[in-house]
Each structure stands twice: as structure tokens, then as C-alpha cells.
Amino acid sequence: MTHVMIDGFNLGLEKGTGVATYARNLSYCTRNLNYKTSVLYDAKRGPEKIPLLQEVFFFDPNTEEASKWKLAGRFLTESLSSFRPTMAKPIEIEGNVISTHYKSRMPYFDEIVNSPDVFGKAHRHFWKTLSIHPARLAVKTPSTPDIAHWTYPLPMYTPGAKNIYTLHDLVPLRLPFTTLDKKAAYYKLCKMIAKKADHIVTVSETSRKDIINLLGVSEEKVTNTYQAVDIPEKYASKSADVVRREVKGSFNLDYKEYFMFFGAIEPKKNVGRLVEAYLTSNVDAPLVLVGKLAWKSAQEMKLINDEATSYLEQVGTDFYRRKRIIHIDHAPFPILVSLIMGAKAVCFPSLYEGFGLPVLEAMKLGTPVLTSNAGSLPEVAGEAALMVDPYETQQIAEGIRELNGNADLRNKLSDLGRKQADLFSMKAYEKRMENLYRGLQA
Questions:
Q1: Where in the chain is the domain with CATH 3.40.50.2000?
Q2: Which helix (H) or strand (E) element contains residue 338?
Q3: Taking the CA atoms of the chain, what radius of gyration do you get in angstroms?
Q4: Of 15, 20, 144, 385, which has the highest C-beta tally within 10 A?
Q5: Residue 217 phi/psi, 5° resolution?
Q6: What is the dihedral of CA 345, 348, 353, 356, to 10 degrees?
Q7: Could you tell me where the DSSP H helices lie in 118-217?
Q8: Quick one: residue 46, left, alpha or beta (phi over 0 = left, psi -120 to 50 = alpha)?
């Protein structure tokens, strides 16, 4: 049986990210392909001889975090000789801990292997040396996997396995003003991975071309597998009455009477222009923003925090009470699904995406989508979305007005969107991944 190991670098995040969704979907994909699936974590480990405490420590997010001064001291004092190959050891998950709270965020696994702080060690070694030879950071496991699939650009590899790296996009190089990455170091890390990898996976033709052109990788070494859009049926099949009750009860929103954006609020997502466009569109339906404030979010939220308040006061107290713009930091997944299903349309005018999963998630749920004509979004959305130039606020505003007043267009996009989302089903994704894995082992 083929054994695939996936990193858990992003799977430990409390609220999850698009990369975490990718890693989870990949774990279920390998399960459905009948591969043995192990997941590598870097959690604090309990006493070696007490399996119960190993399980307890794995599920405990409240372990003491090192202060920035301790981390700085560790960086300065950690010698290069300490970056030796790391043995990842299995953690027995026997159901002693009630882990229902984490159910929606856990990947599928036949085995969990753990090496405390292994991802931190890898990054510290890289920042210290900017080495293109991460041999000292090799990860050894009890049984060497046939394939080590790193779902993020990590300076690590597993000896004896085919090492595959997913590069979702090269946004720090394509839109450097939208991220806080150290660009020179990021470039060297990507070049290091490109040299070390047995193969590179990406999630769109747009990203594939960027990897080939910007990193100088040969075409045959990069495969676009796209992603899978997968929403559990028990959520996706909610009735309109249930959705109506949930959005009204949770946020006092009227069914199909609000626009919505969901995702991290950061410069790449273009939320600032979306808010500006919404205000100038003069539509009555509120705009709901669902997402945590990420890097450089202050400028994106400026209109909400300052100018929007002034604008709302000018149009009258009654209108102000309706809260034209609503920011929700986080919604549990079942409620998020209802918010998407209950929206008149989802607006996602991102400046650049490696894939753009929110677009397809909205389409799968039958919600019309306005999105941008930049990056991978045209190839992902196809003809099933209203496309706008993300840099042209007036175009975004016109699109909002069109969707607000044209029920026929909304119905058409809803039907086309469901069909477009079917092209990115789990079954289709499994076939692409199976072909990739088999080709690498041939």
C-alpha cells in the first residue's frame, strides 16, 4: 500500500485558512485512493511512556508560548549542529480525549507522527543560513513514506521518499506590496524548494506559469492539480427556511437581502476597494464582511472605521441603524455556510489568487458571484461569475448594482455556478492526484 505523509503545518491553526482546507482535503483524497495516510505535527509532546498524556498534550492548545525574548535567545544560541535529522514519533489517538470540538478541522489520518517544534526548527535554520541544502532538517519517521507531500513552502524533506511541494502561488513576488514576507528570503526559499523537490504541485495554470517563469523550473517538473471544493452534504443541503432562520437569528440579516465577502481581510483581497464600491453603488442591501483582520488590514478597513461612519450619519439615523456594513470576525463553519447561502451575492474582487476557493464554495452553494478578472479567478470561475477589473472601483460598483437589481442574472449565475463547481469535485481532484502520484512512483 502506498504511504503518503502530509505536513500539519497549517492544520493546527484555530480558525483555519485556505491552505488548511487544502491539506485537509488532500488527506481525505489519499484516504479515498486507499493510501496509508500519516500527518506530521510539531506539537508539544507528553511523557514518552504515558500514551494518555501524549494524546492530551496533542489536543491541548494552551501550552505555554515562548516570549519573543525567549524565541530571540533561542535563535541566537541554537547552534547549527543542533539542526540534525529529526525522528518523528507516533502519537496514539485512542479516543480518550473528547475531540469533537476539533472535528471540522482535523484531517483524515491512519497515523499521526509528531516531532516537537520541527517546523520552527526548520524555519530558524533557514533564516539563519538561507541554505539551499536543508539536509540537516530531514524528517525521519517510523516507517518511511513513499511520498512526503508538503502542502506549504517548508524548508524540509524526508529521506527515502518522493518529496512533493505545493506552491499555491507566488504572491510575495507578483504583488510584493500585499504581504509582509521578506522577499529576498522568500525567493531563496522557493528556489531551494524548486531545486530540492522531486516534483512541484500547484493549484492553477496561472500559478504554474508563475512558478516556471519566475523560478526557472522546467515545465515537466510542475503539475497543476487544481483544488477540490467539498462542503459536507448536511450543510450544503440546508433548506431555505433553515438558512433564513439562522441568518436572521444570528446576525439579524434578511434572507437574500445582503451582499457578502468572506476571507482574510488583507491587501490582496481588495476589501478596501470593495467597500468603496459598495458605498458608491447606493444599494440598500447591507454588505457583510466575514473574516479576521490579517496583515496590513488597517488601510483596507479605513472606510469602515472612519469615512463610512461619517457617510452613514449623513444619510439619517434610521438608515444608520440598519448597519450598511457589518464586519464579522469569525463565523463557525455551519453558520458561515448559511451566511453564504442566504446572501444575494458573494463579492470577491481579489487582486490575485492562486486558486480562489471562496468563489467555488459560493457557487457550489448556489450563490451568485462577483469576482475579478485577475490571477487564476477567470480560469476557476469560467463563465459562471460576473467579472470585473479589481482595480476599477466603478466597475465593482456597477457590478453590485447589476446583481442587486437583476433577478434573472442572479438566477442564471446561480445555475451556472453549480455546474462550474462540479468541475472541481472531490472525485475529479482524486483522479488528478492519483495520476500524479502514480507517475512519480513509476
A1: 3-228+426-441, 233-422
A2: helix 333-342
A3: 23
A4: 385
A5: -85, 140
A6: -20
A7: 118-129, 171-174, 183-196, 205-215
A8: beta
- pLDDT tens profile 168-213: 999 999 999 888 888 998 999 999 899 989 999 999 999 999 999 9
H/E segment holding residue 139: strand 139-140
**DSSP states of 10-70 as a string?**
TTT-SS--HHHHHHHHHHHHHHHTT-EEEEEE------TT-HHHHHHHHT-TTSPPPPHHH
What residues form DSSP beta bridges with 147?
4, 162
The grid coordinates of residue 347 equal: 463579492
Hey, how many other C-beta atoms are within 10 angstroms of the C-beta on 22? 21
pTM assigned to the model: 0.87
Each residue's pLDDT tens digit, 40-99: 988 876 556 787 887 887 887 665 444 444 445 454 455 555 556 567 778 888 888 887
Instruction: Give the contacts of 317 (CB within 8 A, at least 6 positions apart).
Output: none
Rounded (10°) CA dihedral 341, 300, 385, 229: -60
Residue count (the chain):
442
Q: Which fold has domain 233-422?
A: Rossmann fold (3.40.50)
One-letter amino acid for residue 139 of the chain: V
CATH superfamily of 3-228+426-441: Glycogen Phosphorylase B; (3.40.50.2000)
